[in-house]
């Protein structure tokens, strides 16, 4: 039985949040040929760089509440324009 992308998306959207996150990670891994060790090393360096910037006062930290509000707005914007309309997915709050 052949299923199209929209059907697969709708089915995946019904999964619990943790399962959706796991599925997203697994799908991303299929796109990236870099080894896990290379990715871990790159993230380690990025974390060190960002912490150094914070410690030096070179960057402004943004409060989580502000970031969350921006993410929710971006989600609403995308959802209004997405061809994958799924009414069971709504932002919390």
Note the topology.
Layout: H1 5-13, H2 17-31, H3 36-56, H4 64-81
Percent range for helical residues?
Answer: 55-70%
Detail the poorly predicted runs: none
* Average of per-residue pLDDT values: 86
- What is the string of SSEs from the N terminus onward? HHHH
- Going by helix content, strand content and strand pairing, the class is mainly alpha
> How far apart lie the N and C ends?
38 Å
> Sheet with the most strands?
none
Alpha plus pi helix count: 4
- What global shape is seen? flat
**Which strand-content bin applies to the residues?**
under 5%
Q: Over the alpha carbons, how many angstroms does the gyration radius reach?
A: 18 Å
List how many beta strands DSSP finds.
Answer: 0
Explain what this protein looks like in three dimensions.
The protein has a domain of 57 residues. With 93 residues, it is mainly alpha-helical. 68% of the residues lie in helices and 0% in strands. The protein is flat, with a radius of gyration of 18 Å. The protein has four helices and no strands.
Brief summary:
The chain is an all-alpha fold and 93 residues long. 68% of the residues lie in helices and 0% in strands.
Attribute tags:
single chain, 93 residues, mainly alpha, 68% helix, flat
């Amino acid at each position: 039985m052949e299923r199209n992308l929209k059907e697969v998306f709708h089915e995946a959207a019904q999964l619990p949040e943790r399962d959706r996150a796991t599925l997203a990670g697994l799908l991303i891994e299929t796109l990236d040929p870099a080894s896990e060790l290379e990715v871990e090393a790159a993230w380690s360096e990025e974390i060190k760089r960002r912490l150094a910037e914070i410690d030096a006062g070179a960057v402004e930290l943004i409060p989580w509440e502000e970031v969350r509000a921006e993410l929710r707005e971006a989600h609403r914007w995308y959802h209004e324009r997405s061809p994958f309309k799924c009414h069971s997915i709504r932002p919390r709050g």
